[in-house]
Amino acid sequence: MRNIFLLSNADVFLLTDIAAFLLVLIGMFFLSLALINKKQTAYITLFFLTHLILFGSRILYQTNNFYPLAIFIFGCIFIVLEIFIPGFTLTGVIGILGYLTSINLAFSDYRYGILAIIISIIINICFIKIMFKKGYSFKGLTHLVLSTESNLKENKEEVNELEKQIGKGAKSISSLGPTGFVMINGLKYNAISYDGYLDNNLDLKVIAVKGRYLIVDKEVK
Q1: Could you tell me if residue 201 is left (phi over 0), alpha (psi between -120 and 50 degrees) or otherwise beta?
Q2: What per-residue confidence (pLDDT) applies to 76?
Q3: For residue 142, is pLDDT > 60?
Q4: Residue 141 exposed, middle or buried by CB count within 10 Å (0-12, 13-18, 19+)
Q5: Per-residue confidence at 5, pLDDT binned at 50, 70, 90?
Q6: Which of 63, 51, 59, 52 is nearest to 25 (CA)?
Q7: pTM for the whole thing?
Q8: Of 55, 37, 33, whose CA–CA distance to 46 is shortest?
Q9: Percent helix, strand and coil across the chain, each rounded to 5?
């Protein structure tokens, strides 16, 4: 409990659990903004900046504790890999567990870390729900995937074949969050949801092609 109330100067304050909680909350808020905005580079940068302040303070002012920062970087690498792997896989689970572990290690007591994460998630979920009601969606995440994929070297024959599928009906054979798989005429294709998360076994429509992915959306009946 002693660490919570040490507020005598800036250096000491950065080591308190109150400062850690505020940095986690603000960092996750920036991540939420990145998910719903196409121009997400600044928000992602601010997300990493808040966490680097959190972990850096532990390294500089505490006991050279590099473990939280190392685990944080490890988790982020797996989360980035998950974005480009269709469906929710073990990669995403490892990434999330790595992130949660790094946050817990930054607190004086892991219970404070768990509480901070729960409160931050609840606040950000409420924020995202409010923004959804105002017409926002996870287009920021979709934009990130598409922008990265467009930089890859494309096979023209494959792209031409994919373009023939535009306008056709498809059925999701995995969740799309936003990447996943769809089936068209018995053939399996990589796909990206145009507008947020889509469940398995939905009737969809191909609306565009980007790289080696079909862009799909809910079919309006």
Answers
A1: left
A2: 87
A3: no
A4: buried
A5: very low
A6: 51
A7: 0.55
A8: 33
A9: 60, 15, 25
Helix (H, G, I), strand (E, B) or coil at 10: helix
**Closest among 185, 179, 181 to 197, alpha carbons compared:** 179
- The structure tokens listed for 86 are 């269709």
Identity at 215, one-letter amino acid code: I
Q: What would the two tokens of residue 95 be? A: 């990434």
Q: What is the pLDDT of residues 147-182, one digit of tens each?
A: 545 544 445 666 677 888 888 889 999 888 778 889
Per the CB < 8 A criterion, the answer to whether 198 and 218 are in contact is: yes
